[in-house]
Specification:
InterPro entries: Lactate_DH/Glyco_Ohase_4_C. By secondary structure, the protein is α+β, with helices and mostly antiparallel strands. It has 3 helices and 3 strands, in the order ααβββα. Strand 1 and strand 2 form a beta hairpin.
């Protein structure tokens, strides 16, 4: 998990807390579930059926980063269209670069 927020105030502490929280959930429930998945699915179906392009956070191949990840994408009638530009602070950008390097090294193995 990479926290992205304006200013990145106390970024190391926030990142540690977010990752610790997610880690605790995974340990307790073994297979975490997104409690909002029903609402998110309904919104996605509405986007496609109504032909109103919207931004959705979906897992897809990000051509500029050359890796699959969950990212905000423009989604429309024809599916996932394009990644949305995200202004990352320096801490989040460093964490993202590290994550991408790890994923790329694992895909080579």
């Amino acid at each position: 998990a990479i926290p992205v927020y304006a200013g990145e105030k106390n970024y190391p502490k926030v990142a540690k807390l977010v990752r610790g929280y997610l880690s605790t959930i995974i340990k307790l429930v073994v297979s975490p579930r997104n409690l909002a998945s029903g609402i998110l699915l309904a919104r996605l179906v509405d986007t496609i059926v109504s032909s109103r392009p919207r931004v959705h956070y979906v897992c897809g191949f990000h051509q500029h980063l050359n890796v699959y990840l969950t990212w905000p994408y423009q989604v429309g009638r024809s599916g996932v269209e394009q990644p949305i530009s995200v202004d990352l602070g320096s801490n989040a950008a460093n964490d993202l670069d590290s994550l991408i390097a790890i994923r790329k090294s694992k895909s080579v193995e």
